[in-house]
Design a protein that fits this description.
The structure is a homodimer of 381-residue chains. Chain A contains eleven helices and 18 strands. The first copy, chain A, is α/β, with parallel strands linked by helices. Chain A folds into two domains: 268 residues, TIM Barrel, CATH 3.20.20.70; 80 residues, Golgi alpha-mannosidase II (Immunoglobulin-like), CATH 2.60.40.1180. Chain A has an eight-stranded parallel beta sheet. A six-stranded antiparallel beta sheet of chain A has the order 11-12-13-18-15-16. The N and C termini of chain A lie far apart (50 Å). In chain A, 51% of the residues are buried. At the A-B interface, helix 8 and strand 11 of A face helix 8 and strand 11 of B.
Chain lengths: 381, 381
């Protein structure tokens, strides 16, 4: 007798496996936290990192979801006689630093390169991948940003996938869940293969700069990458510049709005010990963050463009849609047609920055958008 | 007895009227020529303009369609007692200069502002619109670039349409066909009304700079403006920087490819008396220029984007489609699906930069595109 198993059983099994995979991923939603580079660059010290952890634990960021405290380049101090990676004098004891971050209920991230040297010329993981992964796990590292840098000196770029896979396997072998962040500037169209080599996120472009043009070119340039993101594996348009002073308020609003619609990792890059209430409010708006962290795990897409006026949408788990209305030029009214979102009839609209229900609208919604600014709404039937 | 006129008669009449309008427009196809600003800026003299005219008449540009020789800002020298606009000592006799340009079989363009001063602080046309239009006509001017500049000092921006209409009417009154170029940096979403105030072209953005980022942000940022362009009235993403030295060869190829797909005005902005054969070849490729000047008068649109990889298409009068394959990042293969162009089955592909038939393809075509580069093909059934 053959037992007939209905197709729906396999479908459920498949969904259960996918769901379990997403749950066991160290990055089921886009990672949130802080990274030392955008503000401190190579001047960073352990004291700065502790300061950031203190700030996050006490200023509302932790509750808002910012849990990773990540050291970027410049913490390394060479290797000892057994080849073990050492911190430099600005850092001292990395395990103590990780413990301190953990004591705040936060997670600790670190940085290396598959090449012999990091971008700033410090010791990379070349030929020490397993040894370094083991050290990170012993210290209690929860997140590794792995930056290609000098790897071009020792590998052809054609081997980039194998090179990243090698470190992924080394991290896996430690048994510790460690978010694996690929930093290779979009090379080799990484979004097509980043997941296959175990990446939880991968940089899609060169480094962001704290200027509107840089942020906008990167952010709006993510269009069409949405099929490649999902729970556990995210496109990374680079870290946040909010609070670093190079953009106006409306431009930082655009930065946060766009990054959340893109389901981008949200790694603050400012000095958290000196942040204006205005900038802090951008980083802490929970309705906006909820768009980024939504469990549907969909990256938003561009719905329409009329020159500088762009409309982007991100479908959310509850059936509503987050919609960003942007002006890359001056102050203009920007319109979204509900049929472009799959809605007909009367539609509810809520302004997420203002926490304000705007009422019901038929057919379309138009918002006045400031120069270089954005309006973010949630719409539902 | 009522005479019944078939609907097709009115349709033909309508087409005939539209066709006649396009023919009587001074810009039935996107204007082509040269403008002094991008290279000479405020140092321009009549000798430079004569030099450009000499070059165009002798280096193949005239035959390729570059017929306008346009002086930009800095030719003005105040007004005489009757309020008549005077050239400054760098220019002397404007009628003589126009005559010289005309003697080469070319057309002559000039520049002013609706404000009291031009952008560089020279005399504008404020309160002298009719008088200036008359002077231009007497000199033999064929093209006026009218640059908002100081007009904000004397008009609210809400009057921008009336201000441009005023000069259009003054030009019309002279009886001389003069191309009317609106330069207002995209303000007030000019593409929605530029035609209504008599504009033959209107700037959709701020000034271009001779850098890839500037050119690409402007060029790719034209997406969605295609419904607003047509025979006699064109979106203007600003003048060409080809030959000015700030971009690499592949980047200038992208510049020309994109501008032609956009049916953009092609105003060279380099020093035509010192041009490399490589740059000249970009400006003179007749198959590429034919895309820009195609009589269907359709502005191209973005077909797809995958992050830095973009595909744009421009339908041509003969039923073929010009397709641009771009990489805004590194060197990558870029693919176009023929179904996105409305084609099924086997499709012919010709490389327009290389003047080379590439053969027939099924379903899709992929080209290897250099970093920041472009491939331009024509495809047809």
């Amino acid at each position: 007798m053959r037992i007939r198993i209905p197709a729906s059983f396999f479908m459920l099994l498949f969904v259960a496996i996918l769901s379990a995979q997403a749950q066991t991923s160290p990055a089921p939603t886009p990672p949130m936290g802080w990274n030392s580079w955008n503000h401190f660059a190579c001047k960073v010290t352990a004291a700065d990192v502790r300061g950031a952890a203190n700030a996050i634990a006490s200023n509302g960021m932790k509750e808002a979801g910012y849990i990773y405290v990540n050291v970027d380049d410049c913490w390394q101090g060479g290797r000892d006689e057994q080849g073990r990676i050492q911190p430099n004098k600005n850092f001292g004891d990395m395990k103590a630093l990780a413990d301190y971050v953990h004591s705040k209920g936060l997670k600790f991230g670190i940085y290396s390169s598959p090449g012999p040297e990091t971008c700033a010329g410090f010791t990379g993981s070349y030929q020490h991948e397993e040894q370094d992964a083991k050290a990170y796990a012993e210290w209690g590292v929860d997140y590794l940003k792995y930056d290609w840098c000098s790897a071009s000196q020792v590998y052809p770029v054609s081997q980039i996938r194998e090179v990243y896979k090698k470190m992924h396997d080394a991290l896996q072998k430690t048994g510790r869940p460690i978010v694996f962040s690929l930093c290779q500037y979009g090379w080799d169209l990484v979004w097509r293969w980043g997941k296959d080599v175990g990446g939880n996120l991968w940089r899609t472009t060169g480094d962001i700069q704290d200027r509107y043009d840089s942020m906008a070119t990167i952010g709006f340039g993510q269009a069409g990458l949405e099929p490649f993101a999902g729970a556990g594996h995210w496109n990374d348009p680079d870290m946040l510049e909010i609070g670093n002073g190079g953009m106006r308020h409306d431009e930082y609003i655009t930065h946060m709005t766009l990054w959340c619609l893109l389901a981008a990792p949200l790694l603050a890059g400012n000095d958290l010990t000196r942040v204006t209430p205005e900038d802090q409010a951008i980083l802490l708006n929970k309705e906006v963050i909820a768009v980024d962290q939504d469990p549907k795990s969909a990256q938003g897409h561009r719905v329409s463009a009329e020159g500088p006026l762009e409309v982007w949408a991100k479908p959310l788990a509850d059936g509503s849609v987050a919609v960003g209305l942007f002006s890359r030029g001056g102050a203009f009214p920007v319109k979204v047609n509900f049929k472009d979102l799959g809605f007909t009839g009367s539609v509810h609209v809520r302004d997420l920055w203002l926490h304000k229900d705007l009422g019901s609208f038929e057919g379309e919604f138009t918002a006045q958008v400031p120069r270089h600014g954005a309006v973010l709404v949630r719409v539902w039937k």
